[in-house]
Amino acid sequence: MSRRLFTASVALAVVGSLAPATAGAQSLYPLIFPVIGEVHIADNFGAPRGGHTHQGVDIMTRTNGVAAKGHPVVAAASGVVDWVGATCCYLAIEHDDGWSSWYIHLNNDTPGTDDGQGWGIAPGIVRGTRVEAGQLIGWAGDSGNAESTAPHLHFELRQPDGVAIDAYDALVAAPRLTEPGGGAPQDPPCLDGSVCDTVAFQDTASRFHRLTELAVGAAVDRFFFGNPGDVAFAGDWDCDGNATPGLYRRSDGYVYLRNSNTQGVADIAFFFGNPGDLPLSGDFDNDGCDTVSIYRPSEQQIYVINELGENDGGLGAAEQVFGFGNPGDKPFTGDFDGDGTDTVGLHRESSGFLYFRNTNTTGAADFSFFYGNPGDILFAGDWDGDAIDTVAVYRRSAGALYIRNSNTQGSADFSMFVGSFAGALPMGQ
Q: How far is Cα 286 from Cα 290, in angstroms, rounded to an integer?
């Protein structure tokens, strides 16, 4: 589907690009993600550690949200085991290109205990062993000076000269395996032959960066539209099956729409709403065309209209008006039940809580759950081509996109590094 809302965000400087850079200043060295299973990555490279600075990135291991040991650890790149801890549980791999990766705090406990007598390094992994990227080399734990901390893998990435660099961005961008060795990296969410939504990013200079597909290394359409501070969204304004950008100027309630993903002035412009309103884009009457409606935060009221304005004029009264939500929550739209009609959801950025209705009427939420971290930008799209919109978040602090293929609480089904931008919005093909 093509009807989506961009959630308003604070402008940030552009410090990354959509395509991962080569190893070096950006630290986007090509890696396989070294831990399999549920994790949280702590960006703590360079943090003070009792007289020295932290030389790695901590990958916290969890099961159903609870800290847990025993997650499989795999080689992040192909190479030869350079050294192994004499008493367990740490090792290093020298990659074929001279770089190296270190794996520290591997498990030293018998599974289910904390006795310090268990395993942490996979059988056959000794100094001089040849390993391939994705091969099992051990299991995560809390050995060494991590005994008083939550289980995690301390991962270091070092240049050929031995200098450690911050691997955080490289880890965010790294493909993840579903199982050691034979597991494949996560596939793009769009099924073969399906028509799926994608995502665009907006920088502080009002430039759009639209991914042509949700896949690592995908081509990017870039174009300027609008002024800094405008709220971006997207929809199929001319009913041709393609989503194109729109802008809402909150200072005066002015709407600007383009009918192509190219640089230029608005093809359609009109007034709707009051200063301070937020735009809602969607097909609210299942006619195959998108329109622009509004959410009034001061009232927690939604105003739906099923036509577009024109000629710099104003639109008449809304066709549907109803209350929904709490003060401070931010709106998004989607066809959450696949019936062809978009409805409204709300996201509580402070906690990651979201809720939505399957009809454009006042009432309690039909679904509610938590997804993402506080501060994430949330929106919905049809990422897998099944005609049902599900949620995704853009995490500006990590420059990463996290997509879920069901409207349920859980980990992302697909993630990728995209870079740092002011905001993000879903866009249909």
A: 9
Distance of CA 310 to the CA centre of its chain: 35
Which residues are CB-contacts of 166 (< 8 A; sequence separation ≥ 6)? 27, 45, 46, 57
Strand-pairing partners, residue 35, are 73
As to burial, measured by CB atoms within 10 angstroms (0-12 exposed, 13-18 middle, 19+ buried), residue 52 is: exposed
pTM exceeding the 0.90 threshold for the entire prediction: no
Question: Quick check: 120 and 139 in contact, CB under 8 A?
Answer: yes
The Cα 58–Cα 76 span in angstroms is 14
CB-based contact 70:89 (threshold 8 Å) = no
Alpha-carbon gap, residue 155 to 96, rounded angstroms: 18
Contact call for residues 195 and 381 (beta carbons, < 8 A): no
Tens digits of residue pLDDT in 18-50: 233 333 333 478 899 999 888 888 777 877 676
Strand stretches in 335-428, DSSP E: 343-348, 353-356, 367-370, 377-381, 390-395, 400-403, 414-417, 423-427
Alpha helix ranges (H) inside 125-190: 168-173
- Supply the DSSP string of 62-101, one letter for each residue: EETTEE-S--EEE-SS-EEEEEE-TTSSEEEEEETTS-EE
φ, ψ of residue 164 in degrees (nearest 5)? -75, 140
The per-residue pLDDT for range 387-421, each reduced to its tens digit, is 999 999 998 876 678 899 999 998 888 877 676 78
Q: Other C-beta atoms within 10 Å of 26: how many?
A: 18
